[in-house]
Amino acid sequence: MIPGTHHGSFFLILRRMRAPLILLILIFAISVLGLTIVPGYDENGNPARMSFFHAFYFISYTATTIGFGEVPNAFSEAQRMWATLCIYMSVVGWAYSIGTLFALFQDKNFQHALKVEQFARAVRRLREPFFLICGYGETGRLLTRALDRMGLRVVAVEVDEVKAGELELHTYYADIPTLVADARYPEVLRLAGLTHPNCRGVMTLTNDDTVNLSVAIAARLLAPTLPALCRSESPESTANMASFGTRHIISPFEKFGEYLALALHAPSAFHLLEWLTGVPGSLVEPHRDPPHGRWLLCGYGNFGRILTRSLRQEGVEVIVIDQGPAPADYEGEWLCGDATGAQALRTAGVETASGIIACVGSDVNNLSIAVTARELKPDLFVILRQNHFANAPLFDAFPSDLRVVSSRIVAHECLAILTTPLLVPFLAQIKQRDEAWSRRLVKRLTDRFGWKVPNIWSVRINAENAPALFRLLMPAGPIVNLGSLLQDPADRARPLECEVLYIMRDDDGTVLLPDSDQEVRVGDQLLLVGTREAQSALALTLENPNTLDYVLTGHDVPGGWVWERLARRRA
């Protein structure tokens, strides 16, 4: 159902209550007219007729059951007979009207219209930046929880009423406006805030590539400057999205293929990528590095095709086990059989293989393949594909080396792109480094911050994000280096629990892993890693001139006009 405008419920009430209202008006009109026609008597007993005003007044408080009284004079027998008839007519009219009103309140279309109006009002009243998420499935749930923990607002659109209702069951710090509607319609996206001035990005995360494609097109046309992140499951949809300029297309299979190739080529760089792109606060468990040699791949769909290509690019031999025949364009060893059975695995040579990938469309079959393979070779490197998030307890119970969860891959990629744009170019440079360099960096960072995913954030040195430092450096201020800036504003002798990983200059120059004596300039964009407390402390330093002065010079200037006057008098 496509929701209408925010006036929909009002006109729906008028349309449904049209007949009851007309009936009540007719009853009132006939009753008033009858009282003016039926003869009566005045206070002296002379024949008289009731005026329209007195007739309307009498019917108003009588037909609405407020009370009863004969005004302006005692009624005649004829008037009393007519008043009795009017009372029964009004009872019938009110019963019909109230019954229609109750039926209207229970009507699903009316309830939906009320929810749409409430949703539209909530979106219009948003005064802080927010992100629009289309599809509250497994990926949407992970992303919403992560953004909420980071203090960012979210607006959700979900076509499934059951999934949308789950938002009320989960505990979030902020209220999340939710609309039950199909996101492929532009009017739905408008109501959800696609063109709202505070919307900072739209993410389409449904399992239907057609819907994701429709949202991508709408975002490109209605909000061309807005970052749009689109999930794509097939190469055809990815090519279609790219054809009209979609900037961020996230294919979980392609992304994991890149991760696997990186893990084979530079394992430490892969560990660093996992640590930096995880959900803040979650624990990253260090795992074995994937070995080279001969691998078994069970299930040759879109995912299997991508992984086969990634493995062969790293010089790994791949044997595919699938129940169907080999495609015409496939080159390599192919075994037609059921990988859940030990016979097929033995035939493929699982005892001499280095690793196995279970990537069929059934979670039960993937677990069966992994358990059987581990029984045949206990030290086998196992990669498991998890299709449904609800089966996480089963996959947690099995000690796999790597687990492929599409929802997590997409959520982590969205967080990296939207919340810390500098993380993407930083990771691109990390992938180009050798294994020894990456190993040293991982050890240094994890020794300082542990394996729990830290806070990753970006800061730009300008008048909006760092007003105190911006005013100090403009127009020709002193030289400020990172070592001096990253000190605790409560005790400048103690450094903040954070570190600058990457600097992007205004002239497009970059500095990877800058030293403590690196100069900070106006317009610099800093990528930092550290604790939440360090992030808050650094924000205070960049915004408050007195705090900045203390951090840089040790001079503790009292804040506020009164305290400054007292400090000058004391000096």
Q: How would you characterize the overall build of this protein?
A:
The strands form 5 sheets. Strands 5-4-3-6-7-8 form a 6-stranded parallel beta sheet, sandwiched between helices. It has a 6-stranded parallel beta sheet with strand order 11-10-9-12-13-14, sandwiched between helices. The chain contains 24 helices and 20 strands. It has 571 residues and is α/β, with parallel strands linked by helices. Helix 1 (8-16) runs antiparallel to helix 5 (108-124). A hairpin with a 2-residue loop joins strand 16 and strand 17 (491-495). It folds into 4 domains: 8-109, Orthogonal Bundle (Helix Hairpins), CATH 1.10.287.70; 127-250, 3-Layer(aba) Sandwich (Rossmann fold), CATH 3.40.50; 253-417, Rossmann fold (3-Layer(aba) Sandwich); 454-566, Alpha-Beta Plaits (2-Layer Sandwich). Helices cover 49% and strands 16% of the residues.
Summarize the structure.
The protein is an alpha/beta fold. A 6-stranded parallel sheet has the order 5-4-3-6-7-8, sandwiched between helices. Strand 12, helix 15 (363-376) and strand 13 form a beta-alpha-beta unit.
Q: What is the beta-strand fraction?
A: 15-25%
Task: From the alpha carbons, calculate the radius of gyration and give it in angstroms.
Answer: 35 Å
Question: Low-confidence spans: pLDDT under 50, at least 5 residues?
Answer: none
Q: Which structural class fits the helix and strand makeup?
A: alpha/beta
The name of the CATH topology of the largest domain is: Rossmann fold
Largest sheet: 6 strands, parallel
Fraction in helix: 40-55%
First-to-last CA distance:
72 Å
Q: How many helical elements? A: 24
What is the arithmetic mean of pLDDT? 88
Name of the CATH superfamily of the largest domain? NAD(P)-binding Rossmann-like Domain
CATH class of the largest domain: Alpha Beta
- The CATH level-2 architecture of the largest domain is identified as 3-Layer(aba) Sandwich
